[in-house]
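Support request, please re-run this one:
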Amino acid sequence: MISDKELIIDVKKGNKASLELLVQRYYKIVYAYVYRSILDKSTAYDLTQEVFIKVLNNITSYIDKGSFKSWILMIAANQCRDHFRKKEY
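Re-run finished. Output below.
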């Protein structure tokens, strides 16, 4: 099994197959986290997609000083907070 670190290095080089593997590896975890926060399947699906877009756009800023899982779940948490902030207005 390829480690997250190796996949991230490949993604930073532009390898789409490695990106797909990362998405497959973490999609269910991220979706479950978002769904438990939002409690709406449709919105959770949309926010999960946005999380992975942000991951792709910010993968170059990822520093290997913690687990990738923690980093991606932090992005998911921020996405959920942003969603609730937007709902208030």
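The first helix runs from residue 4 to 12. The chain has a mean pLDDT of 94.
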